[in-house]
Amino acid sequence: MNLSIVVPLYNEAESLPELTAWIRRVLDPTDWSYEVILVDDGSRDGSWEVIRGLQAEMASLRGIRFQRNYGKSAALQVGFAAAQGKVVITMDADLQDSPDEVPALYHMITAEGYDLVSGWKRKRHDPIGKTLPSRLFNAVARAVSGIHNLHDFNCGLKAYKSEVVKNIEVYGEMHRYIPMLAKWAGFDRITEKPVEHHARKYGVSKFGVSRLITGFLDLISLLATQKYLKKPMHFFGTWGVLFAAVGGGTMLYLAFIRLVQGIWITDRMPAMLFGATTLLMGLILFSTGLLGELIARNSPIRNEYRIAETMGLPDAD
């Protein structure tokens, strides 16, 4: 199959008929084999019933419905697992991403050899409460990731080689950092394409200002897990040795002046407490790192989600 389009959605019943019709207008004239995978993230507005009706008249449509709302990262992860296309393109379901961009994105992957192409909403139709935090977030993400040629890490419109989405794991709220995950997985041919961004036609945005805080917390978590997940001793052990060295050195100094020089150290109790505390912290950190090396990488159920129903997928009922 040439192309898979993965669309995570939550309460987007009004926009789905227009979105699928738009995709068909763009792709049906081509000679590509394609599928559209709509992942319903526990919608409560009848989105699944709309998907069911659309699937009856669109053979290339696939549907996956979560039992409850898990978040965009979960929807993408499950959609990536189901995708069969050599090129995978993601877009949001709110009609702000344009399916007209799909052919150019597809060409950049297949003909120009990029691993990942991220959309850049150069002209955004969003309130300033979303655009300003987004600029700050993207500046930090560029500095931390070393991917300096991306202006919009969080754009929902992206294109990937199939190998990319099959070799990364998206969980929690890590969808914002997919370019970083791809780079760390060895897929470093990453670029961006300015894309058209439309004003929201139906409903309201599902993201609030709180995503700025959670975005930075996710970045810290991602850096810690990616850098030290397979070598926790490198993190905990380094700090453990440092604390133990400071604490041990302090205690040795106090022992020297008491036992060798015969000086009472009752007036040096703060130094003794400092030495004992840092030595204990060092031992605890070192032990934590050692235990981390012995514990399995992650919980085996971290990326398990209760899927209530599917349609159009291979082996689906």
Tags for this model:
alpha/beta; 46% helix; 10 helices; 8 strands; 317 residues; elongated; 8-stranded mixed beta sheet
Compact overview of the structure:
The protein is of the alpha/beta class and 317 residues long. 46% of the residues lie in helices and 14% in strands.
How far apart are the termini?
22 Å
* Helix proportion: 40-55%
Average pLDDT for all residues: 85
- Tell me the β content: 5-15%
In total, how many beta strands? 8
Going across the biggest sheet, name each strand in turn. 7-5-6-4-1-2-3-8
The biggest beta sheet reads: 8 strands, mixed
Radius of gyration: 25 Å
Q: What is the H-and-E element order?
A: EHEHEHEHEHEHHEHHHE
The general outline is elongated
Count of DSSP H/I helices:
10
List low-confidence stretches.
none
Secondary-structure-derived class: alpha/beta
Task: Please write out the topology.
Layout (H helix, E strand, L loop, with lengths): L2 E7 L6 H12 L6 E7 L6 H11 L3 E6 L5 H11 L4 E4 L11 H9 L5 E5 L7 H18 L12 E4 H5 L11 H7 L5 E5 L15 H19 L3 H28 L9 H26 L12 E5 L6
Parallel strand pairs: 1-2, 1-4, 2-3, 5-7
Antiparallel strand pairs: 3-8, 4-6, 5-6
Describe it.
- This protein is an alpha/beta fold and 317 residues long.
- An eight-stranded mixed beta sheet has the order 7-5-6-4-1-2-3-8, sandwiched between helices.
